[in-house]
Amino acid sequence: MKANQLTIKVSKSNDSSAKSVGVAVASNGTIAREIGMSREQLEALGFEGKVGQTLILPNNKKQLTILVGIGESAKATADVLRTAAAALARASAKVVSLSTNLAVSGRGDRVANAQAVTEGLILATHRYDALKSDKNATSKLESVTLVAPGATNAAVARGSRRGETIADAVCLARDLANMPPAHLTAKMIAERAQKIGAETGVRVEVFNKDQLLAMGCGGIIGVNRGSVNPPRMVKISYRPGGARRGAKKSATKKSTAVKLPHLILVGKGVMYDSGGISLKPSNPDHAMMKADMSGAAAVLATMSTLKSLGCKNQVTAYMMCTDNLPSGSALAMGDVLTMRNGKTVEIHNTDAEGRLILADGLSLAAESKPDAIVDIATLTGACARALGPQMSGVMGNDQKFIDQVVAAAAATDEQTWQLPLERKYRTMIDSYIADMKNVGGTDAGAITAALFLDEFTAGRPWAHIDIAGPMWSDADAGWLQRGATAYGTRLLINLAENFKRR
Ligand code: BES
Ligand code: MN
Ligand code: ZN
């Protein structure tokens, strides 16, 4: 089921019945005659064609003409068009239908441009409204026609279909992260994953508390100790169509089947992070800790698109799901946990819970010897302090793979910045009683968290994406909406599609 409200069509000509017409205008060059105004006149109205600027004019066809700026025409790439599309959708919020040439107004790859426009339109109109009485409060816009004349039509249609699949996944991840804690427990997100798996052609296996205990997953079991809601681990598997599992047919002959590049995603799924015994202060801002499962949501959303996008790589995902709550049975400071890979961890702060559950997920991922592992987690306030709300931090043990993550971030306009995995800081998490403790000091919090995770990767190529900054938006802006952003979903989809084994 689609998570967004827009129907997007692609047509060779303008839809004359549309209530509004969106016209792309560059900040240079001539103004299209259909607008009926000179650049001077538009500038007098305060419209210069800057990226994302809009101007609404009535026209004589009982429509609104909505001008949308795309900046300098030579620089109108997919990122620009995504931003312009979001602005156009916001300007069209009071009408039900829109017809626009935006998808064919940019430079470069037509498929990528149409995909970006579709993403911008959908992401700027989506709202988690399940708990709102008035479902149309945000935007009345229901249908958009992307005008793609002649030879451009096929590419725009293809790009738009990709854009819909991807944006719908982002909306799904946003919805999951915006859901209040009691509306989405670990058990419930696992059930949701099973349903999504059945609908989108990926295999979903759910592991309950007893199974996790039997598997020696001391991290997730430990974090869950304070909660009345049991934990869940969700494993999702995707193989491109036609690829066979192992070589069951010929037990005698060695398999000649080509081993596909294999990427594993691990997502932090803390359904609500109260801090546990190290209780967070009672600040209403912490309501956003319901979105501490944004990594797991991005991973699930990513997996839901792979079959439909025809991803050529093998991709497996682990969602590590539990809440982090204080109670008489909760994890205490000084407790020592034995993790899935046998390493022991002394607890010095129960609010550093994300790394404990990721540790088990990373260990399991490494056991299947994939070509690379990437984890995504709302892990440290330190990373949010360092880089702010517009970018994640990335660290890892393999520069070539980190480069692939950085490239995927750049290609999707989900910015990231590499921080050093400085091995000299490993002593900051030394414990006198166990193999390590779960926090460093006050310094370099994002790095010591990553050094902790590194202990569970068994040296497999690995990258860690800390999304504590960009997981949340305080305002509707560009293609972001207030609330959970689902940051990382488009990045991971791009990474899964373009992943290259070394
Ligand atoms: N989920 C939080 C990190 C977080 C903070 C995410 C703000 C998004 C926005 C994480 O579990 C946490 O509590 N981290 C602690 C670690 C500390 C105890 C070492 C932090 O950052 O304060
Ligand atoms: Mn925490
Ligand atoms: Zn957390």
Describe it.
By secondary structure, the protein is an alpha/beta fold. The chain folds into two domains: 143 residues, Leucine Aminopeptidase, subunit E, domain 1 (3-Layer(aba) Sandwich); 326 residues, 3-Layer(aba) Sandwich (Aminopeptidase). The chain has 13 helices and 19 strands. The strands form four sheets. Strands 7-8-10-9-13-17-14-15 form an eight-stranded mixed beta sheet, with helices on both faces. The protein binds ligand BES, manganese (II) ion and zinc ion.
Q: Would you spell out the secondary-structure blueprint of this structure?
A:
Elements: E1 7-11, E2 20-25, H1 39-44, E3 54-58, E4 64-69, H2 78-91, E5 97-100, H3 110-125, E6 143-147, H4 153-178, H5 186-200, E7 203-207, H6 209-214, H7 218-224, E8 232-238, E9 262-273, H8 294-309, E10 314-324, E11 336-338, E12 344-346, H9 354-367, E13 372-377, H10 381-387, E14 392-396, H11 399-412, E15 416-418, E16 436-437, H12 445-454, E17 462-466, E18 472-473, E19 483-484, H13 489-498
Parallel strand pairs: 1-6, 2-4, 2-5, 5-6, 9-10, 9-13, 12-16, 13-17, 14-15
Antiparallel strand pairs: 3-4, 7-8, 8-10, 11-12, 14-17, 18-19
Observed structural traits:
eight-stranded mixed beta sheet, Leucine Aminopeptidase, subunit E, domain 1, binds manganese (II) ion, 19 strands, alpha/beta, elongated, binds zinc ion, 19% strand
